[in-house]
């Protein structure tokens, strides 16, 4: 089996996570976090749609991590994002982190908004 090292050039990967935190580009964030190619910042969670809507035109899809397990997101959040032209993929936060990193390494226009595990 051949293993290939993933490179991110100038992009910001999610380095790791643990109980209540994420490590993004070497910086620790407590609680929920929104990560894009250009950086990361704290996020208010599923009731905080505006930072996600501010990404219109910059991303094609956002991976919404719902914590340790996959869960439904509020319909109004999904409707607002899809209505603005942003694709939404809901999954557990660990899966969202992995998926974000893989697609980021391919140069895709993605973001991750993840709740802590």
Say how many strands there are. Answer: 8
What is the CA-based Rg, rounded?
Answer: 13 Å
SSE order:
EEEEEHEHEHE
Judged by helices, strands and strand pairing, the structural class is alpha/beta
- End-to-end C-alpha gap: 31 Å
Low-confidence stretches: none
| Overall mean pLDDT | 93
Strand order of the largest sheet: 5-4-8-6-7
Shape: globular
Percent of residues in β-strands: 25-35%
Multimeric organization = single chain
Largest sheet: 5 strands, mixed
Helix content: 10-25%
Number of helices: 3
What distinguishing features does this structure have?
31% strand, three-stranded antiparallel β-sheet, 117 residues, 22% helix, five-stranded mixed β-sheet, 8 strands, alpha/beta
Question: How would you characterize the overall build of this protein?
Answer:
There is one protein chain. The protein is of the alpha/beta class and 117 residues long. The chain contains 3 helices and 8 strands, in the order βββββαβαβαβ. It is globular and about 35 Å long.
